[in-house]
Amino acid sequence: MITVGDLTKRFGSKLAVDHLGFEVRPGVVTGFLGPNGSGKSTTMRCMLELDRAESGTTLFDGRRFRDLDQPLHQVGALLDAGYVHPGRSGRNHLRWLAASNGLPRRRVDEVLELVGLTSVAGARVRTYSLGMKQRLGLAGVLLGDPTTVILDEPANGLDPEGIRWIRDVLTHLASQGRTVLVSSHQLSEIALMAHDLIVIGQGRLLEQGTVAEFVERHAERWVRVQSPGIFELQQPLEQHGATIEVIDDTTWHVRGSDSRTIGELAAARSVVLYELSPQTGSLEDAFLQVTAAAQEYRSGHVDGGA
Q1: 146, 236: one domain
Q2: Residue limits of the ABC transporter domain (predicted)?
Q3: 53 inside domain
Q4: In the prediction, which pLDDT does 117 show?
Q5: Shared domain check, 272 and 205
């Protein structure tokens, strides 16, 4: 369990983290989301006491990070995969981490095999690709078999196989009862592996709950209707207050009505339906809706034409 309470951090006059508080429970993957500049990375650094917060506390199973007697056994964190001495080999990087925490050398070979780097373990880190550095960083996280795992953009630089692999690793760790907190801009991946969500904007907590609850509250809903006689439904649907988005000559997206009502209207007019399916927007749609007012950087409109 991670408990963050009243965390505040300034850089000069800029308030990066604003009295932020949340909990991360064990047994599930928790996604940590926010727009660029929202304070996610700063929050993680303050949690691990890499940056000094002006106020607030972070407790890992009831203890501050500085008070952990065996930190690598209790909290494994990867915030920057590039923060590795480029002249060391991958194996030697892990060996000094293991030695500093009293771990046996055989554990280094075990985690190298787990992350798929055994064949390049003797190569210098400067020759590693970004994806390989991410795998090496995760190996360091797993060295002490920690009860809590904290990762910032762990899929950055990974190919599709690597992204799926890290998703499987994190869900497996959570299924063992560990506490897993993952920050990522890859919302499709968060949707696949996370059960809980923490969403922040401008350093403040915007939402905390399950992914399902978040999408249910904030994503758009509509009904996809397909029929060869679909235009016979236009007048009754509009009379019921529905709005219609025409996709093609036989397919509409209907908002403001449900599938049962649409089905009854079609049956009363003997309209054959090929499809009548409720649709819900994605986690990305819900996220953009919630964080619209907290975006520090806004993109301009891009015209679709040539």
Answers
A1: no
A2: 2-227
A3: yes
A4: 93
A5: no
Whether 296 maps to a domain, the answer reads: no
- The pLDDT of residue 295 is above 80: no
* Residue 274 burial (C-beta neighbours within 10 Å; 0-12, 13-18, 19+): exposed
The candidate with the shortest Cα–Cα distance to 198, out of 79, 21, 65, is 21
The answer to whether the beta carbons of residues 178 and 147 sit under 8 Å apart is yes
Closest among 63, 34, 110 to 291, alpha carbons compared:
34
* Residues 40 and 133 placed together within one structural domain of the fold: yes
- Tell whether 130 and 157 lie within a shared domain: yes
Answer whether residue 305 is part of any domain: no
Measuring CA to CA, which residue among 235, 234, 259 is closest to residue 246?
Answer: 234
Element (H, E) at 44: helix 40-47
d(C-alpha 300, C-alpha 129), whole Å: 32
Mean per-residue pLDDT of the chain: 92
What residue numbers bound the domain in which 58 lies? 1-215
Neighbours of 296 (CB within 10 A): 12
Whether this model's pTM surpasses 0.70: yes
User: CA-to-CA distance for 246 and 253, rounded, in angstroms?
Assistant: 7
Residues 247, 180, single domain; the answer is: no
